[in-house]
Amino acid sequence: MNIEIRKAREKDALAISIVHVYTWKTTYCGLIPEEALDALLSELPQRAEKMRHRILEEDTVLAATADDTVVAFCTYGPSRNKDFSAAGEIYALYCLKGFHGKGIGKALFLAAVQELVRQGYQTMILNCLKGNSSLQFYQHMGGTVIGEREDTFSGGILHEDIVFYKELDKIMERKTKKKSSGA
After folding, report:
1. Alpha-carbon span 183 to 79, nearest angstrom
2. What is the pLDDT at residue 183?
3. What are phi and psi of 15, to 5 degrees?
4. CA 65, chain centre distance (Å)
5. What pLDDT is recorded for position 28?
6. 70 vs 41: CA distance, rounded Å
């Protein structure tokens, strides 16, 4: 299977939106009310249009493909949290369940960090829904939980951990050294 990490293309918008909705359904089941997750399915056309706009206008979306089919994606940009206004942020990083454990999440994460470093960011945050097992991955990649935030979704309140990364250039150095040394 040929895995490729690349900038998302306009034609990827619907596939990315499908990956987004499917991963929410499989990852957040039990953490977010089922009816709210089900509602995401009916929003696919609108989500795809928003993603198409983001790809064309902001150029802040990465896609991971397996044999030319989108199986994961990552979005990033400037921090949306006023307490971290000088930081970059990974907004979303989702991978289809059948493709976990193949290094795709790590490759997307590092590609986003590389883009943020290229844009001049030295630090980064991301938000991780409380109870999401991906928190361990984010910590393994060098992040530290430094606080919590609340967000509203479908009329409810979600609780998220704020994960902070300092010295993004050093994260890139450490993670690429391990890769080249076979670790």
Report:
1. 31
2. 45
3. -60, -40
4. 15
5. 80
6. 18
Give the tokens for residue 41. Answer: 């399915």
Side-chain-facing half-sphere of 104: CA atoms under 13 Å: 26
Query: Which pLDDT value is given to residue 4?
Result: 96
User: Rounded to whole angstroms, how far apart are CA atoms 163 and 128?
Assistant: 7
pTM, 2 dp: 0.90
- Order across the sheet with 69-78: list the strands: 3-7, 61-66, 69-78, 88-95, 124-129, 156-165, 144-153
| Angle between helices 104-118 and 168-180 in degrees, nearest 10 | 140
Tokens standing for 163? Answer: 């994960």
Q: Where are the beta strands (DSSP E) in 8-136?
A: 61-66, 69-78, 88-95, 124-129
Full set of structural domains in the chain with CATH? 3-180 (3.40.630.30)
3-state secondary structure of 41: helix
Nearest to 116 by CA among 65, 54, 56, 167: 167
Query: What band does 176 get if pLDDT is binned at 50, 70 and 90?
Result: low
